Amino acid sequence: MEARLLDNLVCPLCKGPLTHHKAKKELVCYADRLAFPIRDDIPIMWADQARTLTAEEAESRA
């Protein structure tokens, strides 16, 4: 995924920053505790496609 694209993406719910997790192929919004999948280098930014972070993931910010 291109860094230029990541700089322009925000959470579709709160408009906050996203963290890119390359290994998990996800964009994470810690404010909403959601992880949006990246499929075939395309971020899927629909809330119903996002998974909820576990408490450990939300606190670790890894």
From TrEMBL:
Entry GO CC: cytosol
Domain of life of the source: Bacteria
InterPro entries per record: Trm112-like (IPR005651)
Pfam families: Trm112p
Family in the record: Belongs to the UPF0434 family.
Listed name of the protein: UPF0434 protein KDM89_11605
Organism annotation: Undibacterium luofuense
Lineage, opening ranks: Bacteria, Pseudomonadati, Pseudomonadota, Betaproteobacteria, Burkholderiales
